[in-house]
Specification:
Layout (H helix, E strand, L loop, with lengths): L2 E5 L5 H29 L7 E7 L4 E12 L9 E9 L8 H15 L4 E5 L2 H5 L4 E2 L5 E2 L12 E5 L10 E2 L1 E2 L13
Parallel strand pairs: 4-5, 7-9
Antiparallel strand pairs: 1-2, 2-3, 3-4, 3-10, 5-8, 6-8
Bound molecules: coenzyme A.
């Protein structure tokens, strides 16, 4: 099966929410689906990038990722930043590189949009494969405190060389993401 990644259209929200509900399972489904729905409509998330992975054969959406605006108000250097969340791949289509394709294409597009830094809270082993590394030790605080045992889950990647080291401080996020329940890692 071949997949392509492209920007999501406005009328694809229902299909995207279905993928998220299936990927995140019953406990978190409404929470994550609500988050996606709100992020897609949140003006404070701009610049935002919403990408879908589509199976070429049947034109079905099997994966989705959103990158939304982040700010570093205390940073000594002005930077543009983004937060990757959420990322979801339909269970039947997992482990085929689709999540990776969404991350790689997203980072490429963000770079061309002039974004300097990308943050993510997620599984360290997965995101480290795609160039992320722990953000806390580099001086970036998540919007809400991450318990020390999960410190490695809060990660950063620079899209402009040299930005890490010249920037630091508290990261703030779009209103839709600005809730402590989205900043718990287990
Ligand atoms: C995480 C997720 C997006 C990965 O999508 P995917 O298309 O299966 O990812 P890829 O095919 O690019 O990569 C798969 C690899 O990542 C690994 N991986 C998947 N989830 C992982 C996790 N939680 N921790 C570590 N590695 C993980 C797989 O083991 C696989 O490794 P392998 O190829 O060596 O076997 C998908 O599993 C998913 O939607 N999960 C449920 C929702 C979720 O947890 N989203 C991420 C929130 S941070």
């Amino acid at each position: 099966m071949t997949y392509v990644v492209r920007e999501a259209a406005e009328d694809e929200t229902d299909a995207i929410l279905q993928v998220a509900r299936a990927a995140f399972g019953s406990e978190q489904d409404d929470e994550i689906a609500t988050l996606i729905d709100e992020l897609l409509r949140d003006p404070t998330a701009d610049p935002r990038l919403s990408l879908v992975a589509v199976a070429v054969d049947d034109d079905v959406i099997v994966g989705h990722v959103i990158f939304s605006r982040a700010d570093l108000p205390q940073s000594p250097l002005a930077v543009s930043a983004s937060i990757l969340a959420p990322l979801a791949v339909y269970p039947d289509n997992q482990r085929r590189g689709i999540g990776g394709m969404l991350i790689v294409e997203g980072l490429k597009r963000l770079r061309s949009m002039g974004i300097d830094l990308v943050f993510v809270l997620g599984h360290p082993a997965y995101y480290q494969k795609h160039g992320f590394s722990p953000a806390g030790v580099r001086g970036y605080d998540a919007p809400y405190p991450i318990p020390p045992k999960h410190a490695e889950a809060w990660m950063v990647q620079e899209l402009r060389a040299g930005v890490i080291g010249k920037t630091h401080g508290q990261v703030s996020c779009a209103q839709a993401l600005d809730d402590p329940k989205y900043w718990q890692e287990d």
